[in-house]
Amino acid sequence: MGISAKARWFVEYDSIEELRYALKLFGQGAAPEGEPEPSRPILHIGGGSNLLFLQDYDGCVLHSGIKNTSIMEEDEGSVTLRVGAGIVWDTFVDECLQKGYYGLENLSGIPGEVGASAVQNVGAYGTEAKDFIVRVETIDLNTGETRIFHAQECHYAYRHSIFKQPELFGRYAVTYVHYRLNKTFSPQLSYAALNKAWECLPSEAKSKASAIRSIVISMRNEKLPDPHILGNCGSFFMNPIITKHKFESLQAEYPDIPAFAATDGMVKVPAAWLIQQCGWKGKRIGNCGVYEHQALVLVNHGGATGKELAALSDSIRASVQERFDIDIHPEANFI
Ligand code: EPU
Question: Is 331 one of the annotated active-site residues of the chain?
Answer without folding.
Answer: yes
